[in-house]
Amino acid sequence: MEIMLCAISNIASGGCSEDCQYCTQSSFVKTQIPKYKRKDIKQIVFEAKLARKNQALGFCLVTAGAGLDDDKLEYVCKAVYEVKKEEPDLLLIACNGLASVEQLKELKKAGVFSYNHNLETSKEFFPQICTTHTWQSRFETNLNAKEAGLMLCCGGIYGMGESEEDRVSFRKSLQELKPFSSPINFFISNENLRLKVPKLNADEALSIIRESKKALSDTRIMIAGGREWVLGERQYEVFEAGAEAIVVGDYLTTKGEEPSKDIEKLRSMGFSFASECH
Ligand code: SF4
């Protein structure tokens, strides 16, 4: 079986004005995460080359913050352009918060393949985890990305205290958007976050993947943050459950598995890695 690997670069980290309760980049939370307004573009290109070496096909440029302004848009476009010049085969994903159709068209022009903007959870549960922007504004950004001609990467986070009804409702909303890929994150607790919920267990996490694939049969289900935390030794069972992609390397603010360990293990299990998008 062929699977797709993606890597993430956090190109603008921390100091976010929003109060998403699951996120250590919010300025409402006191954490020791690295904070910077702009990562050097040479460093981004270096990380992109490393991602390609680690068999990644997707490379996601993520900025903290509610959305894009002119400066940030220009910076992301420049980073995209420079990465594309050096690594033309990488599929670039931009993840820059709320965005208008015009802004998203600019990203597309610069070489972005897909836009990632997660709904995170159901519209009913969202107000309990964020009060500074609406779920609807997230949904609209996804519609904007489609209108701009970008592929859509839209998913969310499980294990934040949402009910089973919330999970069903969340997947129904994803069905409406029909994303090309859908990242599943599992909430990672942190002593500095206000959100205090029990950790998901591995069986529950695998069942979430199965239900997601059932609901989104034409979508590539990608397992992102929390894979190691929630699934531990059982993390490679995600493919049996319906996943076709994983994030390799580090996440935005948490450490991931060593890519070489993932690659070796996946090869030994008979997986090959997508080098182009079908
Ligand atoms: S908008 Fe993004 S970066 Fe800001 S707090 Fe929410 S999830 Fe974190």
UniProtKB/TrEMBL annotation:
Binds 1 [4Fe-4S] cluster. The cluster is coordinated with 3 cysteines and an exchangeable S-adenosyl-L-methionine. Binds 1 [2Fe-2S] cluster. The cluster is coordinated with 3 cysteines and 1 arginine. Keywords: 2Fe-2S, 4Fe-4S, Biotin biosynthesis, Iron, Iron-sulfur, Metal-binding, S-adenosyl-L-methionine, Transferase. Its EC number is 2.8.1.6. The keyword Iron-sulfur applies. [4Fe-4S] cluster binds at C16, C20, C23. PROSITE patterns: RADICAL_SAM (PS51918). Its cofactor is [4Fe-4S] cluster; [2Fe-2S] cluster. [2Fe-2S] cluster binds at C60, C153. InterPro entries: Aldolase_TIM, BATS_dom, Biotin_synth/BioAB, Biotin_synthase, Elp3/MiaA/NifB-like_rSAM, rSAM, rSAM_sf. Pathway: Cofactor biosynthesis; biotin biosynthesis; biotin from 7,8-diaminononanoate: step 2/2. GO terms for biological process: biotin biosynthetic process. GO terms for molecular function: 2 iron, 2 sulfur cluster binding; 4 iron, 4 sulfur cluster binding; biotin synthase activity; iron ion binding. The keyword Nucleotide-binding does not apply. It catalyses: (4R,5S)-dethiobiotin + (sulfur carrier)-SH + 2 reduced [2Fe-2S]-[ferredoxin] + 2 S-adenosyl-L-methionine = (sulfur carrier)-H + biotin + 2 5'-deoxyadenosine + 2 L-methionine + 2 oxidized [2Fe-2S]-[ferredoxin]. Residues 1-227 form the Radical SAM core domain. It holds the Pfam family Radical_SAM. Belongs to the radical SAM superfamily. Biotin synthase family. Catalyzes the conversion of dethiobiotin (DTB) to biotin by the insertion of a sulfur atom into dethiobiotin via a radical-based mechanism. Homodimer. NCBIfam families: bioB, PRK08508.1. This is Biotin synthase. It comes from Campylobacter cuniculorum DSM 23162 = LMG 24588. The gene is bioB.
